[in-house]
């Protein structure tokens, strides 16, 4: 079917929605929106191209923003965080100018969808491997959006308020404003989270993540179990293995960290090995899964490291380093995960301590010298699951005796 044929079906000129727009709505409203093309890059690209073609003559700003949201999501999936910013910025600028010229085109639904794009752009300004320089800009952009009637937001705007709240909380968390992040996450979970939706699970995991950094692993475990147990109960083991986007795996990873910080070695080991085998069962790991794999490998290394099993720890530290250099330092993220960057440097610094403890002073000195400058320069960088600031402090404390 050609798009021109659809124009012949358009019906009355004053119809609120054209056949072209209806088809795009069906595509974007599908339950598998975020598994667009079912993981097939070719099908994803063709569906997006077709949707673009269908909307060429459309004046529906809300629908255009929905399509942009999906497109930006898939750019993000490839690790092209910065590539998401300019299309979002350009679209918002153009749309705001159109609204300035004709305020009547701004409905509550359109405002809600524009808010989603604005929050998404703000999040991309500050990622796990970006600098802290964009923190204030990102914070301001997120807070700028509000419902047309803040006292009585529409249902759709209320959903955007939830997206705004979770993004704000994560922004505070990733940049060390832990008390603010904790308050906002509790607010999100109380006011906006939908039971058993992935967003709820991710927010619960982020809240537990903050509690871990604050030295409260027992309380973190209580939070995790509150949200993890219902998810595990409604999925078979096979379903859990296959559901790659699920928030369940993230909650399980945070639970492993809670086990580790409470000295529950056997539970931690068993859960980590299960996660590791699940990652290895996937024929191809998506970019965000490589990041999760790195966190699992680093936690397995730390588990051995803190128990004095230095030779075994080195194996997992090397695996974590290889994941950084070979699978995370690629494509749009190349240069952000090389040896001379923050997270790989923590891995190398940890390896240096292992070599000292094993009596290999020459190897240890070389790694320590290589990493010290990087870690000093990036001392204020955000922290990440499996390599929290408490871990870096732990290693530094034990390295003092080898100076």
Percentage of residues in helical conformation: 55-70%
Order of helices and strands: HHHHHHHHHHHHHHHHHHH
Number of strands: 0
Q: Oligomeric status of the shown chains?
A: single chain
Write the layout of secondary structure elements.
Layout (H helix, E strand, L loop, with lengths): L2 H6 L10 H11 L11 H14 L6 H17 L7 H17 L6 H18 L9 H10 L10 H20 L3 H14 L6 H16 L3 H17 L3 H6 L4 H15 L3 H17 L5 H19 L4 H19 L13 H16 L3 H17 L11 H11 L4
Helix pairs in contact: 2-4, 4-5, 4-6, 5-6, 6-7, 6-8, 7-8, 8-9, 8-10, 9-10, 10-11, 10-13, 11-13, 13-14, 13-15, 14-15, 15-16, 16-17, 17-18, 17-19
Characterise the protein shown here.
The protein has about 400 residues and is mostly helical. The chain contains 19 helices and no strands. It has helices at about 5-10, 20-30, 40-55, 60-75, 85-100, 110-125, 135-145, 155-175, 180-190, 200-215, 215-235, 235-240, 245-260, 265-280, 285-305, 310-330, 340-355, 360-375, 390-400. Helix 2 runs parallel beside helix 4. The longest helix has 20 residues, at about 155-175. The N and C termini lie far apart (about 75 Å). The model is unreliable at about 30-40 (pLDDT under 50).
Q: Which key terms come to mind for this protein?
A:
about 400 residues, mainly alpha
């Amino acid at each position: 079917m050609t798009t021109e044929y659809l124009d012949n079906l358009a019906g009355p000129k004053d119809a609120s929605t054209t056949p072209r727009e209806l088809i795009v709505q069906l595509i974007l409203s599908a339950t598998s929106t975020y598994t667009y093309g079912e993981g097939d890059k070719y099908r994803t690209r063709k569906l997006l191209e077709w949707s673009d073609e269908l909307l060429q003559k459309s004046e529906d700003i809300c629908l255009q923003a929905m399509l942009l949201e999906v497109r930006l999501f898939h750019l993000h999936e490839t690790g092209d965080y910065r590539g998401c910013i300019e299309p979002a910025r350009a679209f918002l600028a153009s749309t705001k100018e159109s609204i300035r010229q004709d305020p009547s085109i701004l409905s509550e639904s359109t405002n809600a969808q524009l808010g989603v794009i604005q929050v998404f752009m703000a999040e991309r300004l500050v990622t796990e491997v970006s600098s802290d320089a964009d923190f204030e800009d990102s914070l301001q952009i997120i807070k700028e959006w509000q419902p047309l009637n803040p006292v009585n937001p529409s249902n759709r705007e209320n959903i955007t308020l939830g997206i705004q709240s979770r993004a704000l909380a994560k922004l505070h968390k990733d940049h060390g404003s832990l008390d603010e992040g904790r308050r906002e996450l509790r607010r999100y979970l109380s006011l906006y989270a939908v039971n058993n939706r992935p967003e709820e699970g991710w927010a619960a995991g982020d809240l537990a993540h903050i509690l871990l950094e604050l030295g409260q692993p027992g309380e973190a475990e209580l939070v995790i179990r509150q949200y993890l147990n219902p998810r595990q109960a409604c999925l078979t083991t096979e379903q859990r293995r296959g559901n790659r986007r699920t928030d369940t795996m993230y909650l399980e990873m945070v639970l492993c960290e809670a086990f580790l910080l409470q000295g529950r070695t056997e539970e931690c080991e068993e859960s980590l090995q299960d996660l590791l085998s699940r990652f290895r069962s996937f024929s191809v790991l998506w970019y965000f899964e490589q990041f999760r794999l790195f966190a699992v490998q680093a936690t397995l290394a730390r588990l051995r490291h803190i128990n004095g099993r230095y030779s075994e720890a080195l194996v997992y530290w090397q695996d974590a380093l290889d994941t950084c250099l070979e699978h995370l330092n690629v494509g749009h993220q190349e240069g952000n995960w090389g040896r001379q960057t923050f997270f790989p440097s923590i891995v190398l610094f940890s390896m240096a301590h292992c070599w000292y403890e094993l009596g290999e002073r020459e190897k240890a000195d070389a790694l320590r010298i290589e990493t010290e400058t990087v870690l000093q320069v990036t001392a204020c960088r955000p922290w990440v699951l499996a390599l929290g600031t408490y871990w870096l402090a732990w290693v530094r404390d034990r390295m003092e005796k080898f100076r």
